[in-house]
Each structure stands twice: as C-alpha cells, then as structure tokens.
Amino acid sequence: MTVSYLNKTVAADAGQTMTMARKRVTDLSSQGEPFLWALGGALAFGCIMIVGFLVMVLWNGLSTFYPKSIAAVTLTNGEVIAGEPSRVERYKLAPDIAEQLPPKARAMVAADDGFALRTLYRTGNFDLYGDDFRWVPEHNVAKREYPNGLYFAERVEWGVFIGRIQGFEAGGAKKEAGNFAESEMRAAHAEARDRFHRIRNIEKDEIGSINHYLNKERLGLRGIELRNGIASPEYAAANEKFNARAQELQIRYDELAAEAKALRAEDAAQRVYLADIGGREKVLPLSTIVRLYAANDIGFFQKIGVYLSRWAEFLTEEPREANTEGGVLPAIFGTFAMTVLLVVAVAPFGVITALYLREYAKQGRTVAIVRVAVNNLAGVPSIVYGVFGLGFFAYILGGRIDRLFFSENLPNPTFGTGGLLWASLTLALLTVPVVIVATEEALAAVPRSMREGSLACGASKWQTITRIVLPRAMPGIMTGIILAMARGAGEVAPLMLVGVVKLAPELPVDGFFPFIHLERSFMHLGFHIFDVGFQSRNSEAGKPMVFVTTMLLICLIAAMNLAAIVIRNRMKRKFKGSQF
Amino acid sequence: MTVGDETVPKKPALRRRAPTRRSVLIIDRLADWIITIGGVFVILAVFAIMAFLAQTVVPLFTGASLIGAIEGRSEAIRGHALMTKIDEYKTLAVAIGESGEVTAFHIASGKPIAAPQFDLGGTKITAFARTLSGGNVAFGFADGTVRFGEITIDVEILAPGHDMSRLETLNDHDWTDGRAIYTAIQGGQVRKSTVGLEIESPQAISPGHAIRAMDYRIGGTPERPSIAFVTVGADGVARLTRTETRKNMLTSEVTSTAQTSTLPELPADVKLAGILITEKADQIYIAEETGLVHRYDTRDLAKPTLAESISMVPEGARLTSFSFLIGEQSLVVGSSAGTVDVFFRLQRAGAATKDGYALVRAHNLEPQKFGIIAASASQRSKTFATADTAGNVWLRHSTSEQTLLKLAPKEPTKIGSLTLAPRENGVLAIADDGRYFAWDVDAPHPETTLSSIFGKVWYEGYQAPDYTWQSSSGTDSFEPKLSLVPLIFGTLKAAFYSLLFAVPIALCAAIYTSEFLHHSVRSVIKPVMEMMASLPSVVLGFIAALILAPIIETWIAAVIMAFIAVPMGLMAGAYLWQSLPSPVALRYGGTPKFILMFVAIAVFGYLCYGLGDTFEQALFAGDLKAWANGGVGTDAPFLALLLFPLAFIAAALLFERNVGKLHADWVRGLPRTQAGALSAARWIGLCLAGAAIAYAVALLMIGVGISPRGGIVNTYAQRNALVVGFAMGFAVIPIIYTIAEDALNSVPEHLRAASLACGATPWQTAISVILPTAMSGVFAAIMIGMGRAVGETMIVVMAAGNTAILDWNIFNGLRALSANIAVELPEAVKDSTLFRMLFLAALTLFVITFVINTLAELIRLRFRRRTAQL
C-alpha cells in the first residue's frame, strides 16, 4: 500500500498550507473508504440487529395486554367470524391454488405478483371451534365491520370466548339481554369472583394444610416404624396417636368439604348465557369468567383499565391454561428466590477466593495458573454445570442427605432430586468466576500505599482488609455480584436439569414449618419462556404471553446490569476524594 | 465509612507500645485460616467438576467384572442337559435332561429341589427347541410328533413373619422345604421360588419319521396368538407349520387354523447343526455341520423358497453353535475353530439371492482358543456368552464387538449347557459330569467402548458401519446407537456457521468503534453491546425458532440475496462518498457518514425484500426449496454467487498487477471528485469482471462434476443451521465485539499518535499499526466467542431441529452435544448407560471449551505482556 506523504485531505483542510505542498496528490487507497464502510456497516448492522430485537420484544410485550377491537368478518362464502386481528402477513400463493380462486380474488392476487395478504384472527371459542386462531386471506373477505355488543370474555377454562351476551341468571331468574344494566351484571360478576376465590381458598389452602399435616403425621409414624420396628410398643402408641389425629383431621376436612360444596351450589346458580357470532350458545357459571368487556364499545380509558388489570393479573396471579394465560407470579417468585440464594452462596465464596488469591496466596506460578483456570471456567458451558449439579448435588449429596435425615420418605426423594437449593448452588458455581474476577480487579485497584499505611499504623492484616481494602473495593465487588445475579437469572439450560418445572404445585416459601422449603422444585421465568413458547400444545396462543415474559425477564436483567453500573459509578465518586 | 483504626493510639506520646488486644490477634489468625481454606476449597471445587464428570464416565469403559464364582456339584445334574434356566435372582436353576426329566437345584449350595415332571408318555425325545425369552419349550419325538410346553420359575412374595423354623437352612438367607426355596428379602418379606410346568397334547407332523431338529416361535397378538415351527424329519423333509388361534369376541369360541408347507431342496443325508425360525416366521435358517447355512424365505407360507446358501465358518471348521440374538436379526455362529461371528440379513442391491437380501458378516469377534460348543443370548441386550470345549466361558457383546469377561473353571471341563442370567448379572454353566459353575458378574455397560462411541459401528439393519446417535426406542430388542460423532459434528456445525456470520461483523464493528467512531457515540454503543452479552439465550432461542425461522423460510431467497446485496450496497455508498468534494466529505465524515451507512443497509435490505422473488426466479428457477433439493434449475448461478467474492479479489489483483501503477499515477493527478468517479467506475468494472470470472469458473466446476447441491445446500428444514447461525450471532457478536474492542482500545495511545504524526491516515493507522499490535487480543476474542458458540444450549435446543445427522447442509438442522444433554438427561435413569453417555457428552463439551478457553487465555496473557512492554 502506498503511503501518501502529503495527504490531500490534510492539504485541503489546512487551506493555507498549499504552498508547502510540493505536489497535490490524490491517493484514495490511503483513505480506505470502501473498507471503512464495510467496518462501519458491520457496526451499523449490529446496531440494527440489537435495536430491532429490543423494539420487537418491547412492542410485542407492551401491546399484548391492550384490548383490541373485535372484527366481525363476513367471508365470500357467507360465513361470519369474529375475532381480534392478531397480525397481517404477506405470503405467496401456490399457483395451483391461485387458479382455483374466484375471478375477483384471482385478479387481486395477480395484481400483487402472486402474493396475497392474510390476517390471523384470534377467534377464541376453542370448545366450539377446536382452534383459537384462524388465518383469513384478504381476497376471501366480503365485509369487515366492528359491531357493538361483541364481548371478549376470558375464561378459567377453554381460553377466550368471543361473542354476545344473551342474558344472565342470578338468584334463580334469567334476565334477557337488554333487560338489565351492565352494572348489575358487573356486580354479580364481582360477587361470583369473590366466591370463586373463597372456594379456591378452601380447597387449596385449608384442605391443603390438612393434607400437609396428615402427611407429616404419616411420615412421623413411618419414622418410628423404621427406628423401632413395627412390632415395638413405641409404634403401637404412635399408631394410636396417629389414628386419633387422622380422625380429627378427617372431621375438619368433612366440614370444609361441606362448606365448599355449599358454595359451589350457590355458584352454579349464577350463570351467564353467551352466544358466538354464529349464534351457538354457551352457558357458563359467572364465576368462571375472569374478565369481560365489550371490546368495541369501551373507550380509551376503559381500555387502559383493562390493560392495567391484565398487567396486575400477570404480575400477581398464578398461571392458567397450561401457563398460556393468567400470571407468572410463581415464576417471578422462583426466579427471585433462586437469585437471592445464589447471591448468598456466591458472594462469600467469590470474595473469599479473590481475597485469598490477591491478599494471602504467594504470587507465583501457581496463582497464575489458578487465575487462568478461573477465567477459563467462566467460559465452561452452562449445561456442563447443570450436569454436574444433577450428578453431584442432587444425586450424591442429596441422596446422602435423604438417607440420613429423610429416610421415612424413601424411596421418594426429598433432597435427592432437583430443587431450589441445588439449582442455586449450581448457578453459584457457574457464576463464581464472575465474582472472583471482578473482586480481584477491585482489590488490585486499591492502592498499595493504603494497605501499607494501615499496616504501618499497627493494624493487623485482617483489620486492614476489613476496614481499608474491602470498603474501597466494595463498588467492584458489588458490580461483580450483580453481574453474577444477572447471569444467573438468565440461565435456563442448567436449571432444566436441577429442579425447574413447568408448573410447581407449591411455592418454595409457605406457612408451614420450616417456612422455606429448599428441596422443592420451582418455576422460573426463563424456563417459562421455553415451556410456553416451545413445548405447549398451541404455541400461537402462548406467543403473546411469551413476549410479555420475555420483556419482563429482559427488563429484570437490564435493571440488574444498570444497577451494577450505577452502583459502580456512585461508589467510585464517593471514594474519589479519599485516596492518597 | 471512617478511615481509621482503633489499634492506632490516638495520643502516641502517652504509650509507646500499645499492647495488641488478644481478640484482634485471634480474629486475625482465624481470618487467615478461613480465607485460605475457603479459597483453596473454591478452587478445588472448581476442578472437582472435571474429576467428577470423568469419574462418572469411567464405568463405560471398564467392561465387566467378576464378583463371585461358585464351583459345585449337584445330584440334580444327571448327564447332558437340553437346557437350563435360572431365575431373575439367581437362586434356583432348572435343567431338562435328554430324556425330558426336569431337575432343579439351589445354585449357592447345589442342593436338589423337587420339581414336577412333564408327562411325555415314554416317547423318546429326538429334538428340542426353546424360545429366547420366557420358558417356552418344544419337544420333537421319535414317532414324528411334537409337543409344546412351558417351564417357569414362579416367584411369590410372602408377607413378613413367615415361619422358617421348620425349613431346612441352605445358607444365611435361603431355606427350603424340599419343593421350594424361601429367601428372606427386604422388609421381612419372604420370596418363594418354585418350578412350574405345562405341556400340550402331541401334534403329529411327520408320522413314522422321527423329528431330527426343530425350532419354534410364538408370535401374533394377544387376541390372535400364533405358533410357527419348523421341523426336520428323519426323512430329510423340512416342514414349516403355522397355527393361528382366533377367539371370537362374541361367542368366546376358539378356532385354530394350521397351515403346513414343505421347504424345498434340503439334501436327505444332511448333518444338521442348527435350525432357527424368526418370530414373524418369515425367515428360516438351517445350518449344516459343514458350515453351510441355508436361508429360506417364507414370507409366503404356501411357497417357501431357498433364498441363499452361504458358508459361515472358516475353511475346514465345523459349525458348532448357531443362535439368534434378541430381536432375531443377528445370528451368532460359533465354529470348531473357535471363531465367533455375527451375521445379519440386509437388503442389498444386486445381491445374488432370490429375494434381494443377503446375509453379511457384520461382526467378527475375538476367537476362542478351542472350538465353541455352546452360546447363550441375553434377553435384554446384544450381550451373549460362548463356551468352548475346554470350558472357557466368554461374555461378549455383539454391537461393540468387545469381550467383556473371560471366565474359566479351575480345570478344563466339558460344558453341556450354558445360561446367561435374565439380568445379565451371572452365567451358569453345567457340565455333563454333575458339576456346575455359577459366576456372578457385573456388566453394566456392555455396549460402550471407545471405538463404539467415537468410531463407526455396524448396527443391525444398517447397510454399512456408521456413526449414529439414537439412544432409545419403543421396543425391547432395540439396539442403542451411541456414537458421539454426530453430536460433536452438530456442535461444530452450529459453531462454524454462527462464527462465519458473527466474526466478520463483530471484528469490523470493533475496529470501527475503537478507531473511527466519535467517543460520544461510542460511549452509548459500547455499553448497549455489553448488555446484549448478558441477554438470556432462551429468549434468543424463542425468537429464532418461533419468529425468525418462519420468516426466513418465507423469505429465504431475499435473505440469501441480502448476504450479497447489503455488502454491495455499502460498497456503492462508499464509492459515492468518495466522489464527494473533499470539504463536504470532511465536514460530514463523522456521525453523518455513520448514519448514511444505516441508510445504505436499510435501502438495500428493502431492495432485497422487493426483489427477492425476481432473484429466486433468476437463480433458483423460481423455487429455492425445490432447487436445493436438486429438483429444478441448475447449479451455475448459485455457484457463481458463492465464488463471486473470491473472483472479485482475483479480478482486483489482476488489475493491480497489470494496470495498477498506471491507474494510480493517473488518479494522483486528478481532482478528488473525478478520482472518486473513476474509482467507482473501476469498482463497477471489477464487479462485472468478477461476476464473469465466477460464472466461468462455476461452469468449469460443474463440468468437472462439483455441485453445491447435496453438499452445503440440500433439503430445506424450517429449523436449520442458517437460523441457528443467525440467532447465535446475537449471543456471540457482543462477546467478540466487547473483548476485541477492549484489545484494540488498550493499544497504547502513543503508537496511534506517532503513526498519525508521520502522516498516515486513520485507516492506515488502524490497519497497519493498531490491528497488528492488538492481533493476539483480537484472536483471543474470537476464541472466547467460539467457546460460547460451542457451549450454547438453549438456542440450539429450540432452533436447530435436533436431528443427529452428519450433514453440512446449511438448510438442515443439527443436534449439538449441549442440546442433546438438555433434552435427554432429564429422562435418563441414574447410572444407566445413557446417563453416563450424557455425562461423557458433558465431559467432551467441557474438554473442547477448556482447550479453546485456555488457548484464548494464554494468547491474551501474551498480548497483555506485549502491550505492557510498548
């Protein structure tokens, strides 16, 4: 490559230096303009990828819960369908199909180079149609309108119902549509929902706690049997006690079951009569409808109300419909609990290791090798940690714990299978290099003079570390820990092996002793995405939910990263003046 | 927080030496210990991962081990036994003698146990057959009749508290009352084992001619059971009979139909060594002592044909053992020369047989020193045992071709009957002189050896040895195919395609960010990219599989076009920019130029969207998927497209060599705008020349017979390597970008300043000074990106289709090591072969990434030292 002695751009820029130039030379190759564009183009492409990705996730995530209008579409064959337009797609029609179209439609397709538009409608009514969604090509549409009175009803079962309300029944008398005020039905609905929650409370929490105690008594009895033998007097005494207690619990159970039955009977009397756009009727107990609104009638603020109430449900309720609807509270909780445990495990070990490497160990070849190894381990695939966690933590450690402390429950594993504790420890192992590296860097950044000053004043090594070194290294350590949290919260692959489940029956924290159940399997936002998006029966129905969960997870991780950056900056500022 | 320390005296003048408090010293010492122990513990824990994985994997390669051996004598053994059978718990052994008497004995002590007897009516047994599993037996008699029966070891669990005091003690956990064995088991329960028998009435097959040999199988469905059996009579006639029993569901009436036919062309004076029939009764194998095996095709029962006759033993040897393995596809053939071979039937084009199938010798197992006299196959895998005339018993596995264990009695013995325990955990050999040998063995993973995992293995029904991963299936007779090669290949394929996409973009972006971008823009872009690195891969996988994959499938032609068009668009932008007058170019050379690059990408991206269809028409005969399949169109345009970048470089070099100097001199004298226009014209000319060269070479290559189809492009699957490569780009680009940018940025500022001061342009500085200095750091960045690509799990699980195939086709899926672990490990039974194989997969992954990362780390250290010296 030729190097120009006097570059043209320099000459032109200086203006006055023309006289100094012996000869004006244009050497375009020295500018490397095409190459610069290739480099810049790559960066631009990367930015487009990232921004596009984020915009797509945010747009889909934020818009999912906003109520859309319901279109009533009359097809060219006379059929009428009603549904929320979900998305529009341009697709290529196979020539043989295009030929069979009616002339008008064929002309439409031909005008678009053989392409056609189609809209995906969310028609709901899975129990009537056997499907939630339907593609409708534009050339099949005769008429599209947005009539009033079309309701969007979210149900506890079978997903969404889209149709009209024929009437509702409360207290024995059916009221036809038009004979009652909307507020009347809303009040009845609110009452029915309250009752529904009460029934669920009885069945899940109260009867659940009876089962819990009964099971505990049974395990206690089994423990005595294992220790003393079935023929021993201890066993006989315990058995008697168990029977008495079981009787007691059974009585309580019967009471609750009777109460629940009474409520259910009451519940069944409040019904709503629905009909789809084609007039097929459906009668449902009012309590099984989660949310009901007339999509085309309500105004902007009511829509915002629905939007917010959906967000509230998403963040505070349990999932419904094989996780494709309802909330993700257990997943949020599981992610949170796991991350907290992860920090509890990773922070002390990471910091201690870094302290050892930086402050205690002799700096030599061994420490250099260890440092390479630690950096290296940050790059070991997460799934390998998962395999280790399953094999070592769950099967070996957990198996041993089970034999020592939970033998009455065998062969059912307690700790001997995946669970919250093992998942957290696995991720702690996975993220410990992050904390070690960050802490080491932070320790190295503390000036030697400060350590020497402290030691010279007579402080012990430990005092120097706790009062001089660690406070100054704290921003770096915090950054490391938060980055470890962010990495841990986003990992899914190892969790699939060590304790994450698609639907956890119980949260890891509840009101029964010892309150925190580290052995329980749990739900996780990341796995929720995998499960709903990938393994559920109807991935199209789950897609909006996955986008919202994705957005939540990304925001969570971005927030952690931002927090790391903010903490680092603030603490840096705080200690800026105190260095000497 | 206050800076200060309580041990520092506030007024030094008062006390010269402040005594250090004891607690301070104790805490200090304690901290020393805790930190040292904790630090060392974490480091050890981290290394323990590798050790633990390795330790779990080791049993895969240890073959089998002998746990215990019993050599005893039992009065229950009277002469040669037709068959022996032992129960699942290796407590009781049953033997049928040559005259049909049933004897049983307790294996540990040799104590005879009374057994019921078959009522054979005193007819002489001349032939015997049994099925592989269960206790179904058949006898052929001298009067030409056959009888079917069943011999079982019945196990009953008795409630705890069974009274053992009146029973005779056999050993510390077995008792007997003479007819049954009582064994104490877990929880105080007692297992009672007895012998059970059943026999059907005789069927006349060849009246007047004794049955010389027979075999039979029970098949059909539970509603319509069928028995198929083949007999060879003393008259030398082989007959095949199939009886089907049908039960009328309404009337409960049972009807049986029998069909008999005669097998052709069997010499009358033949010396039979064995006869086998498959479960579906579609193949019959008759072996002569000379080693000649006749295979009859009996798919049409009424018209059996001799399909082929081949010799299965070495020259001069006799065929002495002939049996099926489970699944009844593999034939184990033992000879008097000690050879043990496994044959199976394959469909072969051009086979010299009547039905198009041919028997092939698939496995050649280690020969024994003496002639083989007995073999016993397992009921659960391709494991089997062979015994030679000196009494050596070898435990073998057909698929992996390994000899698991070599067992031998203390002194050479003639073994009459050999049985492998139902759970493959023992072998029982009975000698005709009343002695027996019971070996307890442990062979947990017979199907794996280093060569069966990493080499080609010939599986049943496969045309040739192959690398295959198929770990499970519905049937019992399934042969697990555990080759890691397709999985390693899948991992490398995913990494290759994703790096092909990610490395150029990440490196170019890093160089631009570090050297050409305004620092205010940089301070925004860099953290955003860094944050992208911590994006959960499950999100990327979801987007790739459910959003990206369908879009790419619909617009595949446009996507392929974009790979060429977008770079061309950028080039076009660059040449246009070059033609701008210098004041304008200088003034807007910063951020506005960068924004123009976005515009160029957007414009040409949209162009691809619009022209994709035309492009598809022009290059791929209007249908890319059909084209990739090899259905329509020609190779030339696509090959030319692939070759275009190389051809362009060639054209540019040719130009440079021949007229480069002339051109440069000419350009020097021109004003910038004209020079820019000339340069653009040159570029267009080179593009055209490159296209011409590429097309010519493509035609030439097609002439030679090189075609991209069937290789890197083939059948289109929705979830494919292209989608994976693209999605993985999101994960890998930020990592490579961040580390490479850091490396470029840490090149000392004085080098940059010196270069610029000497008159080099920023481009020349970047390429000739900065990049070479930072090269090792940049290389380390690529390696670390590669490590991430190799280990990435969720993206490949979701977007790769998970098909374990050896195929570079970019349009097809793959199954990576990591995805395979994530998919199969949750289902694998602890300590099973699959479980350990998945641990081996994890270990392989660990080793691959360990090597890559260590290399990267060493390179990076070197880079740090070098920059420190500068």
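qc> Confidence is low (pLDDT under 50) at residues 1-9 of chain B.
qc> done
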